[in-house]
Amino acid sequence: MKFKILLALIFVNLIQAQKFNFPETAVTDSVILEKQMPILASQLIPHIQSKKYKPKNELDFSDALFRLQIVAQDYKQSLSTLAENRNQFADHNMAGYRFLGYELYSMAKMLEREGKVPFSNALQTAFNQKYESLPVSLTPKVGLAVNGNVGDSRMYLRKALDKQKGKKTMDFATAFALCKSYLNYKTYSSIKPQVTQLLDLKEKERFVMETQDLHLKNGNTLTITIARKKENTSPLPVILTNNIYAGSSDDFFAKRAAVYNYVGAVVNTRGKRNSNDVNNPFEHESEDIYEVIDWISKQPWCNGKVGMIGGSYLGFSQWAAVKRLHPALKTIVPQVAVGIGIDYPAQNNIFMNYMLQWIQYVTNNKLTDEKDFANSTKWDSINTKWYKSGQSFRSLDTISGKPSKIFQRWLDHPGYDQYWQKMVPYKEDFSNINIPILTTTGYYDDDQIGALYYFKQHHQYNKNANHYLVIGPYNHGGAQSFGFTYQNGQQPIDPVARISIDDLAFSWFDYILKDGKKPEILKDRINFQVMSTNTWKHVANLDKMHTSTLKFYLQDHKNVSSVFNKPDTQSFTKQTVDLKNRDQKESYYKIDKQNSVKSTHSIAFESEVLDKDIIISGNLSGFFNVSINKKDFDTDMYLYQIPPNGKPFLLSTHIVRASYAKNNEVRQLLEPNTIEQIPINNSYFMSKKMEKGSKLLLLVGVNKNPNWQINYGTGKDVSDETIKDSGEPLEIKWYNDSYVEIPVYNE
Fold this sequence. Notes:
The protein has 20 helices and 28 strands.
């Protein structure tokens, strides 16, 4: 075994150490560059195929390989590898549009070579063949799939070449990066203008498109985009999306509804596109959407029925719409809906740095600032600068160089107060929502807590709520499109989970708006996929998602017979966190020689080995009994499965500001050096079978890192605290009668 590990390390070092010749003149001479790039790519391919290259999974392998094959001008093989990549990414041809630009380029180059025809003729043939072969439901995605930025790709290629100035060789990583940037530029500079024209012609044959400004009674102006199939001449139900992300997605959402034989309508929020109103995200959706629906319902192409769909902010918008329900709105399909004030911009009352990045994304211009938003280097630098400086969280926008009134206004509301409550239904408001609703979210969805908040509140206040939930192994993108085969670098999801969320949503619309058949998967109100079993389960309410529980007490199996037994005597584990320290190195909990998990600012508790299979299904709950030397702190928790192979699998996480744990509306500071109870609510939901021989690993600790507010525990507004408020190190006593209650489903 040691020999094999050593051999693997040698191979990794060899591939990194290998040097590839690259003439200095190729950096500045485009003719030489054109000749040299296929040679370079051809040299890299054997290294990819020899397994010296260490991809995360087969998807990453095929992704790297097809790109090199195109650069190496092996177009036929690249098309085959790209087809494999799509199948690995998603089943049932759901990803048939994926990397479409590269496919069209390869097809055209192959036709150009074999048919000895001009590239433009070959590209037209390739485009027509591909477009007509796509399932109709995928055609609205073509525009997004070929929308590569020629200017940016040229800039990135230039930067890659500039790094090579004065050098005659390069290592594998540099060579691979150069090949990718070269391919991007060659592809989109070659195809984009012509493909844009060809696509426009195709879509004019299929759709009637119209964009206009709506002048609302409240004095605001919004831009709306309408799409209808030419063949659909009679009035139809309208599927509305309220979109703050103005841009190419507007046409996509409208056409998506049209190909499912509805009228698609996409309205942009205040301040976007042609609107000169003030853009204050989240604040006016309820008021504006009511007027938009009223206008739509009176148009000749509408039969009086309106449904809504969309994810994330677009999911939130639907809950805003039902706060003041228009009679024409017959159903909503909120996907991965932002729980405003619940999981964003603060999760369980802890504000996240990401909020500033997002605010600038949607307010920098009339569309979206894609370049700034995607500049991870910039935002990592801003967050790190703030973290290292010890300045208040309220100073983050100033540190970014762009002060934000929106950012400051949000920080003025650390509790779930009336500012947030007025944006969406609140408590008894849910009792008045009697239209059918379908919610979709995923175990890896960043807004799962928000999506489930609305679902739980609706059923709590409306006992007859006609509200269905579909949840499975999907991330934020997957739960509003389709089930990607690989999620978060984990093993492939079960085949039964690889479904089209689009098809599900529009089957739901057919069911509600056209008296169609109820979607097969909706066998009960709650429909959840149990990972590692290849099955879906269907139950009437959330409480029935589990049949029993395990209480994991804060103790280690090495010291007790079982962590699942309540301790006979009370004791505690002490943790000290220096809130002033900004240079602390990351620490890791070692599972075995190959595996570990990050445990900085955490204490680890490991269970005994499970003697049978168990299914964990639902939300973690329980209580932490703690004593601290300050008035407040922010807890975090991670629960892992450690399977027999030792590779950790993250099951659930939970963070909360201790002073808001009992009531997210009213802050209740802790009494220093007194045992206090912190309830565990709003953890991440998961459903997964753990095989016999697994263990559970529980990490509990303090949320302190450059991506979130830092709570110094003075009791002042956390947004105003600085490193000067840190005082003595935070000391926590985690008492062993604390427990995390794990929901278990017994078949």
